[in-house]
User: What shape does this take?
Amino acid sequence: MHGNIYIIPSTIGDSGIDVIPQKTIDVIRSIRCFIVEDIRSARRYLSKIKMPVTIDELTFSELNEHTKTSEIADLLVPVLQGKDTGIMSDAGVPCVADPGALLIDCAHKNNIRIIPLTGPSSILLALMASGMNGQNFAFAGYLPVKEPQRSRRIQLLENRSKYENQTQIFIEAPYRNMQLFKTLVSICNPSAQLCIAANITLADEFIKTKSIEDWKKSEPDINKKPCIFLLQSVVSAVR
Amino acid sequence: MHGNIYIIPSTIGDSGIDVIPQKTIDVIRSIRCFIVEDIRSARRYLSKIKMPVTIDELTFSELNEHTKTSEIADLLVPVLQGKDTGIMSDAGVPCVADPGALLIDCAHKNNIRIIPLTGPSSILLALMASGMNGQNFAFAGYLPVKEPQRSRRIQLLENRSKYENQTQIFIEAPYRNMQLFKTLVSICNPSAQLCIAANITLADEFIKTKSIEDWKKSEPDINKKPCIFLLQSVVSAVR
Assistant: This one.
């Protein structure tokens, strides 16, 4: 019998573990084998969770941007041998804007049962709080850094929002947030709505939706803060 | 001073409340004023949460597909008068494939603080467990019911998945799940990947990703079960 793979959300930044449901905590406490984005972050999180065994009794493998595709199958060996395994990323939800999907894809091909657990996702929380269309939305990840690709991409997203009434969600490396903000306000239609959601779930969480025109009058304080951007061109009555 | 609006996830179907984080439970218990999709479902959920006051001491307003746009502003009156208010839908996360976004949009325009809380979202959980691209994805809601619009839409989604490497997520009324499944296997490329995620968070949760070709050999048991469909045309190595 194969083990199961549990997809385990972590806290985002330094929030308390009260954002993690009891069921997720119970599953984490029952697992001894972890595939993680970074071992040090994982240990820190598990010590907050108060594991019933010492950290030395746990097994950790790393899965991150340095992992070669050819190494993915090896990570599944303990699972195929019957060990329940948890996959965790540094913050939030694995496999969504974070490593993990290739491993899960490989696990499906090996007929391994996948069990996703509930926890905080900054993308989902930002969408909920944006007031934008949640019946039709797209997440584009990171935008191109260089011009003119960056501006072209923003225009493409704005057009798609306009013609398909699809909320466009994207992110940026936190130290480039203000640069992206400035590009957005200079390129987008003044009537387009922009939601900026920074430090989600933390004490200084900031979530605000305003028109591009209104954002021009007051810059947000988002430099170096983890941030989700959401763009909507047309405000539709159908939600 | 205005009150805050808390966006409160509920359980999906009959799962235990152990999928709801303690922080979310604590906020629910502190609130007396609720805007809900359906009052009876909301009362049932709140009785599981064990409110510290009787249900009679709580105020409920309804916000659902019968609510007129002109009535939205009225729902905010208690918030503008200082009352902290929670918005809840029947299952899962408000404002995402569920009512609420128009109210939140109106709240932003009134400078009300919006606080989204963590809880189960079948769309997010399905995406996590699908093994499909979580760096670039789109949720399209319900597909058109009639042909040829339905087939055309599926082809459009498959093409977008193929040319943009964007995972396509969509839903159907549970009694039409099998009909949609049959259309998908008849239209999509045999090599395209289809993930079917049914009864998420429940005891008989079923999540499986297979090629269209493989799905043809074994129909899933998803009739009348709440279900998320995810389609990916090309398996990319970049995740």
